[in-house]
């Protein structure tokens, strides 16, 4: 399996969402947390989403209580907090595990494709239009660097 478009994930209500529905788009897949030192990055992610969405770009938000236990609460609570605090419009999915033996299959695939487990909140995977990992960013990577890479792929 080389493409993330082969995976199906669950939206925050538990409905199946085939990632194939994002085929031919550039994606930024992010494991997020509501009580992380990086939580304010939601604002920057929304800025990227607004800037490029009409050009075939989406941010896919996967809240996770791993690896730092910084995302307590149920999916609806997480969604309401992020929506009210950061006014985000990009899709948010069901909370997932992002590392270890019971990692969500999508995140296990992303880790395998980049030869590194997810060890920090707000790790970002930039996916090209073919569904392959084009870049991986740590939470410390500047939004301008990520923006430049997105611009290259669109």
Task: Tag the structure with descriptive keywords.
4-stranded mixed beta sheet, 4 helices, 6 strands, alpha+beta, 29% helix, two-stranded antiparallel ribbon, 154 residues
Write out the strand line-up for the largest beta sheet, numbering strands in chain order: 4-3-5-6
Percent of residues in helices:
25-40%
Specify the biggest β-sheet.
4 strands, mixed
The separation of the N and C termini measures 23 Å
Q: Unreliable segments (pLDDT under 50, ≥5 consecutive)?
A: none
What count of helical segments does DSSP give? 4
Q: Could you give the count of β-strands?
A: 6
Brief overview:
With 154 residues, this protein is an alpha+beta fold. The chain contains four helices and six strands, in the order βββαβααββα.
Give a description of the structure.
With 154 residues, this protein is of the alpha+beta class. Helix content is 29%, strand content 19%. The protein has 4 helices and 6 strands. It has a 4-stranded mixed sheet, sandwiched between helices. Strands 1-2 form a two-stranded antiparallel ribbon. Helix 1 runs parallel beside helix 4. The longest helix has 12 residues, at 41-52. The protein is globular and about 35 Å long.
SSE layout:
Layout: E1 8-10, E2 16-18, E3 26-32, H1 41-52, E4 57-63, H2 75-86, H3 105-114, E5 124-127, E6 133-137, H4 143-153
Parallel strand pairs: 3-4
Antiparallel strand pairs: 1-2, 3-5, 5-6
Helix pairs in contact: 1-4
């Amino acid at each position: 399996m080389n493409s993330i478009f082969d995976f199906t994930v669950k939206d925050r209500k538990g409905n199946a969402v085939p990632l194939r529905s994002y085929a031919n788009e550039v994606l930024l897949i992010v494991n997020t947390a509501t009580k992380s030192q990086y939580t304010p990055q939601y604002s920057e992610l929304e800025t990227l989403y607004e800037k490029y969405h009409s050009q075939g770009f989406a941010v896919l938000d996967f809240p996770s209580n791993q690896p730092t236990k910084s995302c307590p609460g149920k999916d609806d609570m997480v969604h309401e907090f992020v929506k009210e605090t950061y006014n985000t419009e990009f899709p948010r999915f069901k909370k997932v595990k992002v590392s270890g033996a019971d990692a969500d299959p999508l995140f296990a695939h992303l880790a395998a494709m980049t030869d590194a487990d997810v060890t920090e909140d707000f790790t970002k995977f930039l996916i090209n239009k073919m569904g392959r990992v084009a870049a991986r960013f740590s939470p410390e990577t500047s939004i301008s660097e990520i923006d430049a890479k997105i611009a290259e792929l669109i």
